[in-house]
Amino acid sequence: MKALVFHGPGQTSWQNVPDPSVKDAADAIVRVDAVTICGTDLHIVKGDVPEVTPGRILGHEAVGTVVETGGDVRSVRPGDRVLISCISACGRCRFCREGHYGQCRGGGGWVLGHTIDGTQAEYVRVPFADLSVHPLPSALDSHDAVLLADIFPTSYEVGVLNGNVRPGDTVVVVGAGPIGLAAIATAQLYSPGRIIAVDLAASRLAAARDLGADATASADEEPERLVEDLTDGLGADVVIEAVGVPEAFEMCTRMVRPGGHVANIGVHGKPAVLHLEDLWIKDVTITTGLVDTHSTPMLLRMTAAGRLPGAAMVTHRFELDQMEEAYDVFSNAGETGALKVVLGGPQHDTVTVPPQER
After folding, report:
1. Which CATH number is 2-150+293-344 given?
2. What are the residue ranges spanned by the domains of the chain?
3. What is the per-residue pLDDT for 138?
4. What is the average pLDDT score of the chain?
5. CATH 3.90.550.10 for domain 153-287
6. Per-residue pLDDT for 354 more than 50?
7. Higher pLDDT among residues 333 and 287, named by residue
8. Where does the chain show beta strands of DSSP type E?
């Protein structure tokens, strides 16, 4: 099969690799029908995630069709159309039993495209399939569903829930890329008083307004002053960091009110300064987190009901073998206006799986 392989910082290639095979009785082999690129993938390519080693197939978000399952899989069977979650869950360890699947210690967590081969390929092996894939209703379009693999549960759980968004709150989202836009969409489920979006790109600020932001500010034009003006000098109740650079995190801590919440979603590759000399007296709560995807079934139901924007965030579509072009477009979003790119590969009737010892 073909797959996008990481060869070290700044180096990837769309190349031939061996087909995946069932290695454990809980595995499923899925033909990839739609896949997308995450900002985390860009961090990996930059070298910000050293756990990803050369030779790894990237990607952790996809919709596909099950072509084979191990003997222990009960929730899906060959022919089923499924959402592949960015998080795999063993279901047995302490964290999985608490619903904290992102911290799984039984071989799951964020493994696809990280510590095992991922979804930016024609086929993918998904471990712990019963808890790591979600059957999809036939009426739900693949380009809507694929956004439920990562960005919507991440924004909702790590941004909105960790940030404790409540009715009437002033919410600031720093970073209006896909994650930030999904945070704007899901924050509205809690009826905040206003949502303010901050970004450098005018196209992304326009998208934020389209998705419900009440005010926008360019990151290089003193957004702190706008927040101060709109809150009578108090500061925002909730500030969500959705960029992953030190300057953005430090800006968030300057905009939050006493007793407020800073919810960090961004993937950081460099240290950020924590100004405790200013924050220690302000009763500020700062949260970090990796998504658990416990909310995915609920978000799927809401997407199917038309309550989330889904494919409205998809700005570019490619064939699967245009993976390198799609990366170029997504990584140069300031010039291309890309928000979310989705790739749909050619359809295959069969997958060749080497015989396994059972």
Report:
1. 3.90.180.10
2. 2-150+293-344, 153-287
3. 86
4. 94
5. no
6. no
7. 287
8. 2-8, 11-16, 28-36, 62-69, 81-84, 123-126, 133-135, 170-174, 194-199, 215-218, 236-241, 256-264, 285-287, 314-319, 340-344
